[in-house]
Amino acid sequence: MLIKRRQFIHSALAAVPALASFRFASAAETATLPDVEAVTLDRKEILLKGTDVKDFAARLRGELLLRDSEGYDTARRLWNGAFDRHPALIARCSGPADVMEAVKFAASHQLLLSVRGGGHSLSGQSACDKGLMIDLSQMNGCRVDPVRKTATIEGGALLGVLDREALAHGLATTAGTVSHTGVGGLTLGGGFGRLGRRFGLACDNVRAIDVVTADGKFLTASAQENKELFWGLRGGGGNFGVATSFNFQLHPVNPLMIGGELVYSFADAPAVLKHMFEHAGHMPEELNTDISLVRLPNDQRVLVIDICFSGDLDAANKALAGLRSVRKPVADKVMPTPYVKLQQSSDESSAPGGKYFIKGGFVQKTSDALVDVIMATVADAKLPMVQVVSMQPAGGAIGRVAPTATAFSQRAIQFNMFVLAAWQDPALSDPAGQWARGAWKIIEPHTHGFYVNEFNDDGGRMKATYGPNYDRLVALKTKFDPGNLFRLNANVPPKGAQS
Question: In terms of domains, do 243 and 300 share one?
């Protein structure tokens, strides 16, 4: 009787279409799945056989979404609302095994492939039209070892997860400035952040990275194994595979820091900028000062310095005395603030779904001429949107790492600088891009190379960006991704290939 009951239940379950095996929408609930329109790496139109797609889905523990699948529109959307891309397939991976299957499927069909971690790709390359998008957003766990002072975090997690889990133990590491940024993209490209001058870039604090390479193999890269790959993953961006987890070194910190904004009038901005440029190299490494000259849609213009002092609280006033005296701020919002709150302070102004366009580069040496260019750029801004020229400071621990120690070679820079347009109205998309490109054309002569996490049509500057490391990166790319499967990034093409 028990056997018959089990047979009945099994038969009943088998009669229910698409139960658990397929997480497609209506198309997969039929006996056969239609062929799927897609594109190859060289943008050639192809048809994926429905049987192949169905078999692919069956090999995943996570979901495979088609264009008519429930959840497809949510999964395809990126942080930067300027891009509206429609992948043929979205593999919502539940773990490294799913990533391996997805990479193998893309390689076997030569599918255009994008990888979405936090989805913060400024150039929109976390998604692709008619290709396969590997979505890591379900892989977002984090575990802290307070004894070893390390954190292991999955490739789809956001920075806020790392901050919260680490700070519960009085620990932290460099983790960007917006809490909903993805850990993976930030770290692979280098990783500036409020603690960077004290502890180095995010990539400098990585002890190991698990990665799925273009042949679908799962590797661990560290100082002990796959050393050359480990070198390339620290600053080489997404060129070498899909990072499924990171192991970070953490550092003891006081969860309560001194931070907030100093706001100055536009008239006082030149004097403050000159002061910053003159004293940046002598400021305490515990002090981070992100500088933004902002023009708002109402035509108001201000200089904002975002402060984070992570050292001894009694030393903060001394460290900030010069900034407070060179010109009187129109608003001084700097006060004791939990570090987690500081890390969330730009979340709203950088909200997902807004439209953004960025152009940037590295400032090797500041000058009065650079101040004049920055001021003129913001003074001439006229569009009904937010227009910004920003600078993130380097130096300190960032500069103490040898240029060839990691793929990130730009260790002697003073600032990472960029122009940014932010808007909502789709009709402003073309004017925003035109303004940013035009503004950057004037500023660019004061820079050399660029931060690959701010990649935007910068293919011509890759050699300048990586300097003495470029040829080594090409060799590494040729070894691990000779077909340039991972090309939707600040691409380093393998020998004989085109990006």
Answer: no
